[in-house]
Amino acid sequence: MTELKTLLEVRNEIKGRKPIFIRQDNPKRMKLNYKWRKPKGIHSKIRHRFKGRRKMPSPGYKSPAKVKDMHSSGLEMINVSSVEDIKAIKKETQGIIVSKSTGAKKRLEILRKAKELNINVLNLNAGEHIKKIEDMKSSKKKTAKESKKEELKKEEAKKETKGKESKSDEISDGKTAEDKKELEKKERDRLLTKKV
Question: What is the pLDDT of residues 33-43, one digit of tens each?
């Protein structure tokens, strides 16, 4: 274990002084992306490794082979997207990374199972994340209940307004709203059938 720790420290030191490898002439041609491409030009100063120019990737920036693709805690990282994937994990040497595309429901199951089996979750704080998802669920339930209450209130308000409208529809002349509508319809028909 001490050997692993020393190798991880060496890796951190190497990665700390590793420059960002940008391809040649990237600022001049913004269509080119930042992905590294080896310079091929005859007079390329970067290819010739002139002093003061950008650095090129070389094996010296490589991390030690034993700690390659390891987490900074010294555990091997394993991507998990379902509860079945957790069962094959060795607690001592491996830790899990919950997949980004996993939904909240499955993520909650995975985190609970990991907590039950004492497996390290490397990309999340399991306790906090479980609490956060449960809070989201409870707030959704509350909002559903509240929305039902609001709908009932709206329906009651509509019924009250309809009752008031039916009373106000009666005209002082003794004519109702239906009679008034019939008169308007007859007037429209008369105007439409009128010869020009």
Answer: 778 899 999 99
